Sequence to fold (322 residues):
Amino acid sequence: MHSVVPDRAALQQRARRWVIKIGSSLLTQDGQRLDLSAMQKLVQQILRLRAEDIEVVLVSSGSVSAGKCHLGWAQKMTTAEERQAAASVEQSALIHAYENLLAEGGTHCGQILLTRDNFRDRKRLKKTRSAIEMLLRMQMLPIINENDAIVDLDNALGNNDHLAALVSNVWHADLMVLLTDQSGLFTADPRARPDAEMITEGMAGDPRYEHMAGGSGGTVGTGGMLTKIHAATHAARSGATTLIADGRIPDVLLRLHKGALLGTFLRSGKFDRKLRRDAWTRLQIHHGQQWVIHPVRRVKDEVVAFYSETPPFTAIPIFNGQ
Fold:
């Protein structure tokens, strides 16, 4: 009997809503000025995904890293005021670069700058979702970033991996792709342990992965592998699967869409349970039985199921067919 849960290649091919986060190291030249050649290659891939009816929301880093170059700062910034200044200098240049590259493909972008407050308040959360969906209906590419120019400790998100996960939750994404300058998650730091092996597939939220991920990233971005593991756990709460892959691989996004087994694939347990539930429901209908899911019991059971391997709902038979 075949499993009702597709393999990772099938899930990659079937995903229609992608949140793609591109790290600073992929968009800048050693954390300095924007790398327009690298940006162009990534934008062209996104346009080809859209041409295949895949909805894409882009979470882009790069504004702070490139902005510090214009300000003459060589070292990694340590204060909020420095980040705010760098972001305000370079944010417009980043979007201008994207707009020019997208215009070559006959489309445009819309910028959405967010802080933690957009996800704390229900009214703001709904406005965030509606802004994303409106841009998509207008055939524009939503480009999301943290509003680094005004954030403080109370409403800062911290890194764009976390932001991408929150966007995946709000927008109900199928797949969150975190492009970085690393091949994926390894059992140990491959720079110190040549025998380290890459985790090609696993379950988001597995506590072993936090230990494997170790510390933060390099000198360019604010996140590292650990923040990506945390982001995958958060995205999985709404059923989104996560892919951590090397953005320097030629046509990496297109290859992932075709089912290539690149990087680290972290499943959502909630999504897998939904597939099993839907398959079980179809099986009952096929056998001549119709079922209804009690709404109160369903909410309770899904909460329990999220933290355990118990069945995700309680079904009550209401009709037995002949």
Remarks:
- Residues 216-222, 279-322 have pLDDT under 50 and may be disordered.
